[in-house]
Specification:
127 residues, mainly alpha, 4 helices
Length: 127
């Protein structure tokens, strides 16, 4: 029972995180506090998509390479789509190809870390 609750927690978290990405990226917020860190927006994009992939992968019981690739594909499509939507539907946001690169790097990094972690877990379980 607890195993099923764990996956439901991740599924609910993944849905919430996806909606949060949409909200934060497509909402015109003209006066965000400035953080004096170079490329902080790229770091935030990286984190958004790192967590996105992590939560969606953890939300299922039976992990497969096919599912990993589907989640990665969805993350890449979401990141690209949001950039175009920002350009079209917001006043204070613009299309930025480097945001797409940061999104993709976050998603790919998460995929490799989760895959590596699962491989270690499976090796430890089989011993």
């Amino acid at each position: 029972m607890q195993h099923l609750l764990g996956h439901n927690f991740f599924k609910i978290s993944a849905i919430f995180w996806t909606l949060l990405i949409f909200y934060l990226c497509l909402n015109d917020v003209p006066s965000l506090p400035s953080i004096p860190i170079d490329n902080i927006d790229k770091i935030i994009h990286f984190i958004f998509y790192f967590v996105f992939v992590f939560l969606w992968i953890k939300s299922i019981k039976h992990i497969s390479l096919r599912y990993f690739l589907i989640v990665l594909f969805m993350a890449l499509c979401l990141g690209i789509s949001i950039e175009f939507l920002q350009e079209k539907f917001t006043k204070n946001r613009v299309f930025d190809r480097y945001d797409i690169v940061a999104n993709a790097l976050g998603a790919i990094t998460s995929l490799f870390i989760v895959k590596f972690y699962n491989a270690i877990q499976n090796k430890n379980i089989s011993h």
